[in-house]
Amino acid sequence: MALLLAAGDTTSVRAAPRTAATSPGTRTLYLIRHGLYDEDDPRDEAVGKGLTETGRAQARITGERLAAMGVPFDTLWTSPLTRARETAAVIARAMPGLTPQLAPDLAECTPVSRRQDVMATVAADEAEACGAQMERAFARFFTPSPAGDRHELLVCHGNVIRWLWCRALGVETAAWLGMTIANCSITVIQVKPDGTCKLYVFGDAAHLPVELQTYPGGTFAPWRLRTPWNLDPF
What pTM, to 2 d.p., does this model score? Predict the structure, then answer.
């Protein structure tokens, strides 16, 4: 889905003029996957594994795209892991007045999946703990705004975004690995005043030049035609 459609729908994405509203409002969540990072860095991901030059370029362009939407963002949340914090910091430069705030439950982890090959590499208690963490994140963010409309940015991770997408739409959360998601892509989900959720955009990376559209592991989209800058084999 094109992000332009969501940005152009003023009844769905743009907030109404600020008032002293006290009734529940719509909470619009913009989930941003971090930029490409140095996976070979041996340091713990809470202090190392920061953005590469490509990742910083992705984050800068994403910040410019979000700023150009004209949405009155209220808050910028970030996972505590280095690659997410650095992405949020770069995005914040395009949005004066917004300071990244840590949200520990947005940290990357691996929840239960249908993929048995993946589950064979993850301890059962680890996957269960991840699911509990994600449930906390869902309970915190996927609720109506208590007073008036809100627009919140969440800079986090592919696993987190895919799991939250499933949870928000009532899909079995173990299906999360059936999707992939690009670095610095934008996903937009609204939580209505009655608590129901609506997806407007999933994993949109069209704001990035094609040579900067990377997926897990720094790979390029496998369906894309060869170009001078994408010489990886199909």
Answer: 0.85
